[in-house]
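Recall the central idea of this unit: under ordinary conditions, the amino acid sequence of a chain determines the structure it adopts. In this exercise we apply that idea directly, starting from the sequence alone.
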Amino acid sequence: MSDTSANRDDPTLALLIDLVRRPSVTPEDAGCQALIAERLAAVGFEIEHLPAAGVSNLWARLGDTAPLIAFAGHTDVVPPGDPDAWTHPPFSATIENGYLYGRGAADMKAGVAAMVTALERFVKSGKHRHGSLALLLTSDEEGPATDGTRHVIDTLAARGEQIDYCILGEPSSSEHLGDTLRNGRRGSLGARLVVNGVQGHVAYPELADNPVHRALAALDELCKTHWDKGNADFPPTTLQISNVAAGTGASNVIPGRFVVDFNLRYSTASTMEGLQQRIETILARHELDYRITWNDSARPFVTATNAAADSMQNGPSLVSIAREVVREHTGIDPETNTAGGTSDGRFIVPTGAELVELGPINKTIHQIDECVAVNDLPRISRIHEGILERLAGAHD
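Accordingly, the structure predicted from this sequence is:
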């Protein structure tokens, strides 16, 4: 049964409905950032729109002193696919049986709505006594991610603005709200391997050189290689073949070229350069005539979570604060991990910021009938507000 009025008095839900109804498929923003900018300007934030190459970016800041506490996220969504496959139209923001359905509901417009309402309440409460607050949004997270958060961070760095703490509102939770915090992400190293051979007739293999046959042993070795053992923060590095292509489409022609795409998700136990060297060594050992191109899309990053990190900073770390606030609001003691795909945290952490990813349940992201629990929305917002209160109080 559809219920479009459920909890409509909750400001986070009301904002989420408005955002989901805007079809902001990458790199489109569909007016989401303008709506948010207007709301934050009303409570005193200075607004900057930082567009780049057709991408919409928003930087909203209140205050000019350290520490700078920033929320970050994205307003773009992945394509919905076939609308007829959805139970409800993908941009209708329909509420049914306690869930709001729509593309981007969980990834990550619920997180965006919760961050905005948390900032609004915190400022209006008069509790903002220390440092500066900010919100960074882009419409290029689900796409190439070259003109979004990276562009904003480069702009900030050029004028000496340093984010000290960053809460990234990505959907981090697994089964229950707050059960998982992400304190880092693995690196992502992609490769396209082109193995050359000699095309010919399948009946005359002695006159040809099949690159598929030549490459199989090398690919088998790549797949079976143990790249590292991981460490306390990361699982072991993995390699997965994602695409292969060869041949003309005819069954009687030996291909002259074999193309293989693969990707490594790697930990801080390995380096990009070290992985590249090991792979090149394996390929050379199998005497392939090949060319390989690399795509360094993300380096691994991690924010410390242990007591030693708290001590080094003369106060609790961001991860420790987030864990305490989640426990207070949910009764759950969240685990921290570095699982999942890449995130825009990879552009923020190298600047020296502490970062934690905290958001709604991610079980339906990028799927047909993506949804978020309506009752989780005010709790996410209150958790974010609680983190702001702790960070402000931590600098008395």
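Residues 105-125 form the longest helix (21 residues).
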